[in-house]
Amino acid sequence: MTGTALRFPAEWESQSAILLAWPHAETDWADRLGEVEESYIALVAAITRYQPALICVADADVEAYARARLASARVDMARVRFLGLDYDDTWLRDSGPVTLEDGGGFRMLDFRFTGWGGKFEAGRDDRLAGRLHELPEFSGNDLQSIDFALEGGAIETDGQGTLLTTWRCLHERHPGLGRGELEERLREWLAQERVLWLDRGYLEGDDTDAHIDTLARFAAADAIVHQACDDPDDAHHAELAAMAAELAALRDRQGRPYRLFPLPWPRPIHDGARRLAASYANFLIVNDAVLMPAYDDPADAEARAVLQRAFPAREIVPVPCRALIWQNGSLHCLTMQLPAGSVAL
């Protein structure tokens, strides 16, 4: 790798838990809190079928309410643990820690979180990883604070030293840095041997500047699942076709083309005049399963079939996410996996 004991595990490797934060009236979910809570209950219920869920709660009232809602939905509460700390919003893929194996232990990387380039207030979210490290569940890990803006949704790893990301996002966050300098930093901090860049691909309504986790995801060291668009009249068609061509040109560590799994395109979903960023690529891998965003769309069934081919040994579990994309994110954006052994439970 890099000559050190550091390693960035792939998401499909064994996990201790999934980290997320409960929505409440002081977050951006306030206007549609009831709908969003239903998606959260379904998400936590799905996670706890396979492993524990660690849920950040802003205060004792939020915890009591969340506990009651989950218990009434018959969620396995033995697999739920609440963590008391405040936050600006609930997109823990981007504000939470990126956890690396470090010899026999773990290192939590605390990158700067700037609210996706200053678009939203993020002061409390930027402190979230450091505050998690103060809790007994995480205190056995090392913490490395890095003064560099990087969101977890912007990076994908195969667990074997290959990182997949988008130039648009990294260049937007760091316009003064060239591709070579960005690669050098990413390889060093994330213990990677190589960085694969996508220059094309976007989703209308996405405010992350083209996070990779809405576009293309590793399913194995030799396989990539990606969002496609089969409607030539859709504004995304040319861009996602160009991204598919970029993916087809990439090579794995053995010099072979990746096995590619194109995901179907859901019908456009709008909030008034605003189109929402619905992507099936924003799935979450947990122990023995893949949680799939479902949008109450005819394409849901086909997306499930594609993911089953990409992950033949895992159960594919649809989770209703139509309410979540009102804030331009889905399952993966809300959650952060914690590698096996990295949390004291």
Give a quick set of tags describing it:
single chain; 345 residues; alpha/beta; L-arginine/glycine Amidinotransferase, Chain A; four-stranded mixed sheet; 11 helices; 19 strands; globular; Peptidyl-Arg-deiminase_porph; protein-arginine deiminase activity; hydrolase; agmatine deiminase activity
Describe this structure in words.
The protein has 345 residues and is an alpha/beta fold. It has a single domain (6-339), classed as L-arginine/glycine Amidinotransferase, Chain A. Helix content is 27%, strand content 26%. It is built from eleven helices and 19 strands. It has helices at residues 33-47, 60-72, 92-95, 115-118, 123-126, 128-133, 167-173, 179-190, 237-249, 299-310, 331-334, and strands at residues 6-7, 15-21, 53-57, 80-84, 98-102, 105-112, 142-149, 156-157, 162-166, 194-198, 216-220, 223-227, 259-263, 270-271, 274-275, 284-286, 289-294, 315-320, 336-339. The strands form six sheets. A four-stranded mixed sheet has the order 1-5-6-7. A hairpin with a 4-residue loop joins strand 8 (156-157) and strand 9. It is globular. The mean pLDDT is 96.
